[in-house]
């Protein structure tokens, strides 16, 4: 009977121990953030608005493509029968997501020399020809084989089916941040480098259609440009375009004399064959920028590194724009211009964000999706904000009576803040609880938060 009583008592004991452990963990986590972090009340940022509408909230509701664009895309796929479309879409999606930058010749030479020393010391009796063959075999096995994608008519249709809606969602999120933070900004001209199927044009028209009068779409693929033009015309070869003032060209204009209010490169830097090409394109795009340069790539380590390289290139080249001497600064997402703490951590992570969207309702594509992307928005002039709030860089974890926020702060460090009403005040706690991944948190002294010893978010 005693044994039976113990067995009956065991579940209660397990629950009690689990409750004690969770309470201790919560108490320990609450100690991570000292009481010095307070909501930024100096600027009266809330006014009479509720916490759920504090100005740091930049989240965009689930994005849906314009009906005209959805109808045109569906019509084009019905008119052009592509075999195994669903399989081709999945294959292209996987390929684009796993894309890495090509290995530079200098790096390849260094790897070859290291392999030659390693293999030569392991077997000094082999001939030079055999050693060279072993080095070549090892290089082929361990080096990423980058290939330029050639978008013909068929592959362009596959790309449209795979990426039109996700690309539209990511760019819409970037435009939304500019419009939310600077509602008085009304651009008149836009240039899209690597325009593809034209999702940037549609997103810009949905955001600023009342002011934009000229769109310049640049893409090296004539098939892509033709497809983008047909989408604007409802899927037909003729007719009035849905968005007026759109021009197409295959080559990037390099003259700095003509600038555009907004310049965008979405998922295009990763398609350039070398670092030299990327440098030249980024410098040209910055010279063409009058107000905002928006760069977007996949939310992977490779995509994030590309953007950080571009960010540093623009920031360090401030004095190299004689026709437009206005300096550049990071508008989003970084609250600083220091090295990215995500890349300098012991376990580097991609700084990425997520945007929910309704996909084009193809037969294989009916569930709501999330677009994971990295971005950087660079602007000319000087920041207008008197304060700089930290950015929430991971999903916010809401727990009973406390909230976990991972923050990129103005001092260039990543902080893991566990915010409670008792320690940090009701205002900051409520602001944190209604904030989301990608929002700004209205914290007055984030630099006084302790650095997190380790990142605990998995990398894709």
Description:
The chain is 40% helix and 16% strand. A hairpin with a 5-residue loop joins strand 12 (402-408) and strand 13 (414-419). By secondary structure, the protein is of the alpha/beta class. The protein has 13 helices and 13 strands. Strands 1, 2, 3, 4, 5, 6, 7, 8 and 9 form a nine-stranded mixed β-sheet that branches. Strands 10, 11, 12 and 13 form a four-stranded antiparallel β-sheet that branches. It starts with a helix and ends in a 26-residue tail after the last helix. Helix 6 packs parallel to helix 7.
Order of helices and strands: HEHHHHHEHEHEEHEHEHEEEEEEHH
Which blocks of ≥5 consecutive residues have pLDDT under 50? 1-38, 446-460
Q: Number of DSSP strands? A: 13
Give the C-alpha Rg.
Answer: 26 Å
Approximately what portion of the residues adopt beta-strand conformation? Answer: 15-25%
Count of helix runs: 13
Q: State the end-to-end distance.
A: 53 Å
């Amino acid at each position: 009977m005693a044994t039976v009583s113990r067995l009956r008592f065991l579940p209660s004991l397990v629950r009690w121990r689990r409750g004690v452990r969770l309470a201790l963990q919560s108490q320990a986590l609450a100690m991570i953030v000292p009481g010095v972090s307070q909501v930024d009340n100096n600027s009266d940022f809330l006014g009479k608005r509720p916490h759920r509408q504090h100005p740091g909230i930049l989240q965009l509701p689930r994005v849906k493509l314009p009906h005209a664009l959805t109808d045109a895309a569906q019509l084009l796929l019905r008119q052009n029968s592509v075999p195994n479309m669903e399989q081709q879409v999945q294959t292209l999606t996987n390929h684009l997501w796993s894309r890495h930058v090509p290995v530079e010749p200098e790096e390849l030479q260094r790897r070859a020399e290291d392999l030659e020393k390693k293999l030569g010391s392991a077997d000094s009796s082999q001939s030079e020809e055999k050693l060279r063959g072993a080095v070549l075999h090892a290089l082929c096995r361990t080096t990423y084989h980058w290939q330029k994608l050639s978008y013909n008519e068929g592959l362009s249709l596959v790309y449209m089916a795979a990426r039109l809606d996700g690309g539209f969602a990511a760019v819409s999120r970037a435009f939304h941040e500019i419009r939310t933070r600077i509602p008085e900004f009304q651009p008149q001209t836009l240039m899209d480098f690597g325009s593809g199927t034209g999702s940037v044009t549609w997103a810009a028209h949905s955001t600023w259609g009342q002011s934009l009068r000229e769109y310049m779409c640049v893409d090296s693929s004539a098939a892509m440009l033709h497809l983008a033009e047909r989408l604007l015309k409802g899927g037909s070869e003729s007719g009035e375009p849905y968005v007026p003032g759109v021009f197409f060209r295959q080559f990037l204009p390099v003259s700095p004399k003509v600038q555009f209010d907004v310049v965008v490169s979405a998922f295009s830097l990763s398609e350039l064959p070398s670092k030299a090409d990327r440098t030249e394109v980024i410098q040209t795009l910055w010279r063409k920028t009058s107000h905002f340069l928006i760069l977007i790539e996949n939310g992977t380590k490779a995509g994030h590194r590309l953007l950080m390289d571009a960010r540093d290139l623009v920031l360090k080249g401030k004095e190299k724009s004689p026709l437009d001497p206005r300096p550049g600064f990071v508008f989003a997402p970084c609250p600083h211009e220091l090295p990215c703490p995500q890349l300098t951590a012991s376990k580097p992570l991609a700084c990425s964000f997520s945007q929910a969207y309704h996909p084009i309702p193809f037969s294989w594509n009916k569930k709501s999706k999330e677009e994971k992307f990295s971005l950087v928005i660079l602007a000319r002039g000087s920041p207008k904000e008197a304060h700089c709030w930290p950015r929430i860089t991971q999903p916010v974890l809401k727990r009973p009576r406390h909230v976990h926020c991972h923050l990129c702060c103005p001092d260039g460090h990543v902080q893991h803040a566990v915010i409670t009403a008792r320690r940090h005040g009701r205002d900051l706690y409520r602001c944190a609880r209604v904030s989301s991944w990608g929002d700004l948190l209205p914290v007055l002294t984030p630099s006084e938060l302790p650095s997190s010893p380790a990142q605990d978010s998995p990398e894709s």
